[in-house]
Amino acid sequence: MSGQAKEAPPRRPPFGLSGEAWLRILAPTIIGLLVLGGWEWVVRVHDIPPYVLPGPVLIAETLVRDWTPLSASLLVTLKITALALLVAASLGLLLAVLFAQSRVVELSLFPYAVILQVTPIVAIAPLIIIWVNDITLSLLICAWIVAFFPILSNTTVGLNSTDHNLLDLFRLYRASRWQVLWRLRLPSAMPYFLSGLRISGGLALIGAIVAEFVAGTGGSASGLAYRILEAGYQLQIPRMFAALVLVSVTGIAIFLALSLVSHLLLRRWHESAMGHGERR
């Protein structure tokens, strides 16, 4: 009726983000700005020389000034990281499927995957670099070794954690082993695989950096680790910090990108990615 008051339309949150989303963004941002401000204040008040501890402003200026060589090295490190993560994800998934199909194969091979995981990459990287003539391939192998196990382990757990009632239902309808794997076990293991992938993204970067430290190399094909070593030898500490900032930002970007992929793949059907109001 005309005399009846109309309900006001619900107010849309600023930029389409909820209060919790704003809290997730603003809280760490404010903490980070306070830490950087305090760091800069300590450096200026105590007149700490830049070869001991440069301030955030000087690090930012160095990052802008030396962006060309640092960005070229960043691309080299990113290439090794991406290839290692791709190989780790592919082999990890394939081996996990193989383990899920045969208990004998899992018991026979899984201990060797554990050995790869617990062996320090710093200890075996020199041997890999000596045995493999190609530097890029040796760096890729080192990064793959570090990133491989979380994907294999998480995916294997996911495949083995399929609801037994659903497995019995598939067997009741005489589903083939391939149908059980493709329609039931792989979808059930998807959250586990994506969780392992998020962990391995950062580990692949760490493996690439460690391998670059050991390999050293030089020239235009050098990664960020070599730039850090080079800056340390030349006492260019602001440049060293600038390279470290790039490494940290890259690791954060990889984690956020993989988290976004996980959210997009799981948001419509899995509890871990659904909003609190959608959970039952």
Characterization of this structure:
The protein is mainly α and about 280 residues long. The chain has a single domain, classed as MetI-like fold. The protein has helices at about 20-45, 55-65, 65-100, 105-120, 120-130, 135-160, 165-170, 175-215, 225-235, 235-265. Helix 6 (about 135-160) runs antiparallel to helix 8. The radius of gyration is 24 Å and the shape is flat. Residues about 275-280 have low confidence and may be disordered.
SSE layout and pairing:
Layout: H1 19-45, H2 56-65, H3 67-101, H4 103-118, H5 121-131, H6 135-160, H7 164-172, H8 177-215, H9 224-233, H10 237-266
The largest pleated sheet is described as: none
Would you tell me which CATH topology applies?
A: MetI-like fold
Specify the number of helices. Answer: 10
Strand content: under 5%
Write down the Rg: 24 Å
- Class by helix and strand content? mainly alpha
Order of helical and strand elements: HHHHHHHHHH
Mean pLDDT: 85
Domain count, please report it: 1
Low-confidence stretches: 276-280
The CATH superfamily label reads: MetI-like
Give the total of beta strands. Answer: 0
Output the CATH class name: Mainly Alpha
Shape: flat
CA(first)-CA(last) distance: 37 Å
CATH architecture: Orthogonal Bundle
State the share of residues found in helices, binned by percent.
over 70%
Subcellular location: Cell membrane
Transmembrane segments: 21-42, 80-100, 112-132, 138-159, 205-229, 241-266
Keywords: Cell membrane, Membrane, Transmembrane, Transmembrane helix, Transport
InterPro entries: MetI-like, MetI-like_sf
